Amino acid sequence: MWTAIYLRQKFPSKKILVAERGITPAGASTRNAGFACFGSPTEILSDIETMGKEKALQLLTMRFEGLRTIQKVFANGAVDFTVCKGYELLDDIQVLERLPLLNEWLYDLTGTPATFCQQDEQLPDFGFANITHLVENRFEGSLHPGKLVNALHQLAVKMGVRFLWSTEIRAVEEGNNGVKLTTVHGPNLIAERLVYCTNAFSHRLLPKVDLVPARGQVLLTEPVPGLKFTGTFHYQEGYYYFRNLNDRILLGGARNTSFQTEYTLEQFTTLPIQQALEAFLYTMIIPGQRPAITHRWAGIMAMGKEKMPVVEQLSDRSFCALRMSGMGVALAPSVGRKIAGMME
Ligand SMILES: Cc1cc2nc3c(=O)[nH]c(=O)nc-3n(C[C@H](O)[C@H](O)[C@H](O)COP(=O)(O)OP(=O)(O)OC[C@H]3O[C@@H](n4cnc5c(N)ncnc54)[C@H](O)[C@@H]3O)c2cc1C
Q1: CA-CA distance, 305 to 320, in Å (whole number)?
Q2: DSSP structure class, residue 57
């Protein structure tokens, strides 16, 4: 929808149409954890190691600018955007030793010498167990994914973007006069240009793109009386993440306990991952308490050999903006702007 909005802005006289297979948006955007996610030190340091410093910081810049765009375009209240601060839980001192250098690298982006700062003294107030260090990031926030999708849809409609729901594209054929999109239930569509924004679900239409679907699972507890922490929290390079959502605990991740089973397009929760999340909840987040789990859900992310999104022109008439590596809430505004910028 960000792509459609930027295209509408750039080409006011063109017809812009979003074809979506679900009766409402059926991908990760309505199933994520609602982190307005800057990123945690272990995650960023790992990205620097695998992608190199320049690319990792470029990716971080896209996220940072994306979050700013969300706040500029929508009133915080409309999407429940809260700059609640983010924290990383650490049990390893090595990362702390690298914080000064990381902060130096981030200075140009955030304009502050202490993007990340050690805040171990807050740990007793939060009530976690088995954690020795805490790092705070005041740029991180949270939002309501459903409200964001709704707000984007309303804005796009207001700008004249058209939506076709329950319209799954089964095949694409490019000719001299346009792109023919064969839909599962018909009728077919003809477009002058096409942008694939199909993220994790792209393989059937774009088998050559380096992309692997990765399931993310989440649980939500009943309200926990006297819950001691607020903010968003990351552990182990973001493989575990949780936040206080109106005094409930929203907890997701644990994909690193079973990578192979989670490379899937099946959008349902599984016992092993849910058990891993519950173990983390009861032993580390709220030791000694056992609130009921009221909701469990799964969504599908798109990963690849590296974390940079694929924002490319594929042919004369086709483009793609996909592979959001589990951070598409933050990345999508920058990705949408970039792909619109590439189209003439
Ligand atoms: C559990 C979980 C937690 C997450 N937490 C966060 C987070 O806290 N912060 C963050 O930044 N990101 C998070 N993410 C990642 C984020 O949700 C995604 O990166 C982002 O939503 C991707 O947006 P998208 O529009 O590219 O893809 P999607 O939202 O997946 O949209 C793709 C759409 O394409 C449609 N589609 C696919 N194929 C076809 C077809 N052939 N024809 C028609 N329509 C089709 C799908 O139905 C879908 O609606 C999380 C993801 C998950 C699963």
Answers
A1: 17
A2: H
CATH number at residue 12: 3.50.50.60
Give per-residue pLDDT as tens, 155-189.
999 999 999 999 999 999 999 999 999 999 989 99
CA distances from 286 to 225, 233, 297 (A): 11, 13, 21
260 and 176 within one domain: no
Residues 56, 125, single domain; the answer is: no
* Cα–Cα separations (whole angstroms), residue 153 to 19, 57, 90, 142, 164: 13, 30, 39, 20, 12
Task: Tell me the pLDDT tens digit for each residue of 98-157.
Answer: 999 999 999 999 999 999 999 999 999 999 999 999 999 999 999 999 999 999 999 999
What is the token pair recorded at 177? 């006069």
Residues with CB under 6 A from ligand 1: 19-22, 25-29, 31-35, 37, 168-169, 197-201, 205, 216, 218, 252, 299-301, 322, 324, 326-330, 332
Query: Atom 20 in ligand 1: which residue has the minimum CA distance?
Result: 328
Number of domains the chain contains:
2
DSSP 3-state of 327? coil
CA distance 84 to 144: 13
Contact 21, 167 (CB under 8 A): yes
**Encoding tokens for residue 14?**
């063109």
Is residue 249 within 8 Å of residue 224, measured between CB atoms?
A: yes
CA 12 – CA 105 distance, rounded (Å): 39
* 89 and 150 assigned to the same domain: no
Ligand 1 atom with the shortest distance to the CA of 302 = 19
- C-alpha 29 to ligand 1 mean position (Å): 4
Domain span at 12: 1-82+140-206+305-344
Phi/psi of residue 26, nearest 5 degrees: -110, 15
pTM attached to this predicted model: 0.96
Does residue 282 sit in the same domain as residue 334? no
DSSP-assigned beta bridge partners for residue 182: 171
